């Protein structure tokens, strides 16, 4: 993953650490997206899809499993590309 550079003023070390952790987790989120009349599962920080499915239900099940294992989120998109649902699998 590319390093993110930013300036922080007036923030505590804890706040900065929390922001960095959240940014890293968001880059790992799994998305169920429409692709050429089918459904794809794609990691947020990747240009390639992980796997393609005929039915959205299959893609959701596969993406849910990945998100659970990686302790991230699953974002489910509509055919138009809008996010219709999101499920968090973060553990404390």
For the report, how would you describe the main beta sheet? 5 strands, mixed
Unreliable runs: none
Structural class: alpha+beta
Shape: elongated
Order of helices and strands: HEEEHEE
The total of helices stands at 2
Helix content: 25-40%
Rounded Rg: 15 Å
Question: What is shown here, in short?
Answer:
This protein is of the alpha+beta class and 92 residues long. The chain has helices at residues 13-27, 56-70, and strands spanning 30-35, 38-43, 51-53, 73-77, 83-88.
Describe this entry's structure for a reader.
The structure is a single chain. This protein is an alpha+beta fold. The chain has 2 helices and 5 strands. It has a 5-stranded mixed β-sheet with strand order 3-2-1-4-5, with helices on both faces. It is elongated. The model has no long low-confidence stretch (mean pLDDT 86).
Summarize the topology:
Blueprint lengths: L12 H15 L2 E6 L2 E6 L7 E3 L2 H15 L2 E5 L5 E6 L4
Parallel strand pairs: 1-4
Antiparallel strand pairs: 1-2, 2-3, 4-5
Can you give keywords for this protein?
5 strands, five-stranded mixed β-sheet, elongated, single chain, 92 residues, alpha+beta, 33% helix
């Amino acid at each position: 993953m590319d390093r993110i550079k930013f300036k922080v003023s007036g923030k505590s070390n804890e706040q900065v650490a929390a922001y960095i952790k959240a940014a890293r987790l968001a880059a790992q989120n799994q998305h169920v997206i429409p692709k050429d009349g089918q459904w794809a599962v794609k990691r947020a920080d990747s240009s390639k899809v992980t796997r393609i499915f005929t039915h959205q239900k299959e893609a959701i099940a596969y993406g849910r499993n990945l998100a659970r294992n990686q302790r991230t989120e699953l974002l489910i998109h509509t055919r138009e590309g809008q996010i219709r649902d999101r499920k968090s699998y973060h553990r404390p």
